[in-house]
Write a structure and sequence with these properties.
- By secondary structure, the protein is α/β, with parallel strands linked by helices.
- The chain is built from ten helices and seven strands.
- A seven-stranded parallel sheet has the order 3-2-1-4-5-6-7, with helices on both faces.
- Helix 1 (about 60-70) packs across helix 10 (about 260-270).
- The radius of gyration is 18 Å and the shape is globular.
């Protein structure tokens, strides 16, 4: 892609497809998600800052990594085991002249979150931004179908690591540090087949607001981004081929968003332009009105 991405050029439907593992492999998707508008060169809004991004190997995390690199930041990427996707992200970041450290591990473990954070801070020389982005979802038609194992997995991936990473990152944060959490439109609208996922994302909203109040006196800002339907590996790993085919068509803009369309919100929240913004959620959802 060597031209500016235009809204009319973005796909409005997708071929039927499904992946049988969470959180999905981006390199196997058709079409591939658009993680960068290559015509946008960026500036120095995050010059020489450092960021740790969970779930940074693909999807929203990859798009944010590229946007941060364009703004002058060095990155550490936390991911489970999607090695090919993670290597692609690193190659793209390094092509922009920035550092990208890959840190695989199962973040359901607090010790892993601590090890990842310590490694990121040591290799980057400290931390300025923490982006809690990793997540899973397992659709079920009825609440009776949500097993105890699924419920625990959803919260142990989507919510608990945010606590672990924040606790581990606080000693390494420099003045003016920022925490950005990825929540979801489902936290506000709900979704009948994603009850546990929506509940975990709602908890992230409350976590963001409460943590912002707690850390304000330390000069640390805490905000969140609430995506709507975004074309990422998690989608093809979660829904049936038929559901994927119509994914995103029910929002006012009539299509799913692409990962690069969210990245600017994270850049803004991490930058000095948002110096008076904390405890807030930016909604990037194709026109869904949440009332919050």
């Amino acid at each position: 892609m060597d031209h500016c991405v235009k809204e009319n050029d973005l796909p409005r439907s997708f071929p039927p497809q499904h992946q049988w593992r969470q959180p999905g492999i981006e390199s196997e998707m058709n079409p591939l998600p658009i993680f960068d508008d290559f015509s946008l060169q960026g500036g120095q809004r995050l010059a020489d800052r450092t960021a740790l991004i969970t779930g940074g190997d693909s999807g929203i995390g990859r798009a944010v990594a590229l946007a941060f690199a364009k703004e002058g930041a060095d990155l550490a990427i936390s991911y489970l085991n999607e090695e090919e996707d993670a290597q692609k992200t690193r190659q793209c970041v390094e092509a922009l002249g920035r550092k990208c450290i890959l840190l695989p591990g199962d973040i359901r473990s607090e010790s892993v979150c601590r090890q990842v954070t310590e490694a990121a801070a040591a290799q980057l020389g400290g931390l300025d931004v923490l982006i809690n982005n990793a997540g899973v979802q397992f659709p079920q038609k009825n609440i009776e179908d949500i097993s105890d194992e699924q419920l625990k997995t959803t919260f142990c991936v989507n919510l608990f690591p945010m606590f672990y990473f924040v606790k581990a990152a606080l000693p390494h944060f420099r003045q003016g540090a920022s925490i950005i959490n990825t929540t979801s439109v489902t936290a506000y609208e709900g979704k009948k087949d994603l009850i546990d996922y929506s509940a975990s994302k709602g908890a992230i909203v409350s976590f963001t607001r409460s943590l912002a109040l707690s850390l304000a006196k330390r000069g640390i800002r805490v905000n969140a981004v609430a995506p709507g339907p975004i074309w990422t590996p998690l989608i093809v790993a979660s829904f049936s081929a038929r559901e994927v085919e119509a994914f995103g068509q029910d929002v006012p803009m009539g299509r799913a968003g692409q990962p690069f369309e969210l990245a600017g919100a994270y850049v803004y929240l991490a930058s000095e332009a948002a110096s008076y913004v904390t405890g807030q959620v930016i909604h990037v959802n194709g026109g869904t009105i949440t009332g919050s």
